[in-house]
Each structure stands twice: as C-alpha cells, then as structure tokens.
Amino acid sequence: MEMELWLHKAQVLIEALPYIQRFNGKTIVVKYGGSAMIDAELQQNVIKDVALLKLVGFKPIIVHGGGKEISTWVKRAGMEPKFINGLRVTDDATMEIAEMVLGKVNKRLVQIMQSLGVNAVGISGKDGGTLKVTKKLADGKDIGFVGEVEEVDTSLIDTLLENDFVPVICPIGIDNEFQNYNINADDAACAIARAMSAEKLAFLTDIEGVYRDPLNPDSLISELTIPEAEELLQSGNVGGGMLPKIHNCIDAIKNGVSRVHILDGRIAHCLLLEFFTNKGIGTAIIGEQEEKYYHE
Predict the structure, then answer these.
(1) Nearest-CA neighbor of 105 among 157, 40, 170, 41?
(2) What pTM was computed for the model?
(3) Of 68, 188, 276, 278, whose CB has the highest number of CB atoms within 10 Å?
(4) Cβ atoms 147, 175 nearer than 8 A
C-alpha cells in the first residue's frame, strides 16, 4: 500500500513535467481574490502554490483585491458600502480606507511568501508610476475615485522579476494629477498581464469555472477558444460577475496573453491542479493559435 502511494506521487510529478518544461521562464499573473483571501488556510495554500511555481522556473506576479475586507472596515467606520454595476462607489473616506486595507493585505501576502523562502516585494500601482488611470464611470455615473487603467509602466515589475523577486501588487493607481484611485482588481490584473505579454493569467474566484448552463453543475467547460467564449456571451447564459470577467479574459488574449484560467480559489492548491495536471479543474480560455491544453 505504501509503495502504491509513492508510485502515485511519482506519477503526479511525471505528469507535471511537460508543463514545467513548457512554461519555464514564462511570466504568469495570478489575480487573487474572493473567499481564498479570507480563509487563513486557503491563503497559505495559494501563496504556497505561487512559491512552488516560482521555484520550478515560472515568473509569477500576484495582483490582489481585498473587497470583502474593505467593506468590513467601511462598515466599522459607520458607512454603508455602495456598489454600482459591481464597482465600489469610492468617495474620499472610502478611498482612504481602501488604500489602508489593501496595503495591509499586501504586506500580509509578502510576509507569507517570505516565510516560505521566496523573496517578494509588495507594491501598489502608484509605485514607479506602474498603473496610470483615468476616472471610470458606471453607466455614465460618476462613482468617485474608481480608476480605469490607461497605461502600465512595467519598469518596476521588470526590475523585480529580473532580480528574482515576486511582485505582489495592490490595485491602487494615480492619474495625471497624481490623485489616488481604487481599481477593480480584475481590471488591474488584466492590464498588467497584457503589458507583460504574460503566458498565463489566472483568476481565483468563488465558482468552479465557466458553465455552459449556470443551472447545470455538470456543464463546466474545461476549455474555450475566443470564438467559443464570444458565442457563450451572446447566448445570454453568462451573467453577474462572470460577464465582465470573461470580457476581461477575451481582451487579455486578444492583446497577447496566451491562456487565461478561471479557477475556484476555495479548492486547495487549485493553481497546481490546473497548471500541472492533464485534467485541470477550472476553465482555460485560449487563443485560436494555441494548441489544446491537455495531453490526452
């Protein structure tokens, strides 16, 4: 029995080999958010996954949110969190809280990464002018200091990667007048992945992936090409928070990212299971020129 266990572990490592070879030295962006940020054990597992990816030759970049924690602190300050089309209405007081909370989350992730023996540096989009933004509107409405990424200066990110650090980035940017803006973390991750021509962009979410029929749990889609993803959007079967996420995925691939993964961050080691196994666990959206992901 013990021998079978060791043979199974060996088989898992062998299965991972072609993926390690293929993506060695490639840049990947992990958008980290959802429940996986709240649960301490899941948080450890996500950072362990990223540390392993780094140690086997990937060049990971973490872009994180912190929406649930921001809402908690907004309520503690005696205010009520407000959203329009999924975007947080951000006045001066909310902006101050968002930056404080995101900075706290940022350094906690760096601390965990350092504890695993991997050097990490936490930055915001303000550092080095990394994320330049303009004001983002929601259906034409001014929702305060919410930014639309106009430009990504990759100089600081490149410097960190070249010097063997994992960049951990929180989505705060500045405009031409050096005003702070809160940025939707999905939008920030997508913009950074495009600018870095990342091989992979992974969204950690609170659902298993993309479903052909949201009411049928057996309709999970393992892979989608861009035309298939656009067809799915037109079918009307995609709604809620998944709608802008898929639009972000399509936009990223059309702008140079090879593969986008939508994963359930509540599953322990979801990044490793998706990246290093033939079956995968989430949904991979790929460019038309990309070969199929699995080695059947």
Answers:
(1) 170
(2) 0.89
(3) 188
(4) yes
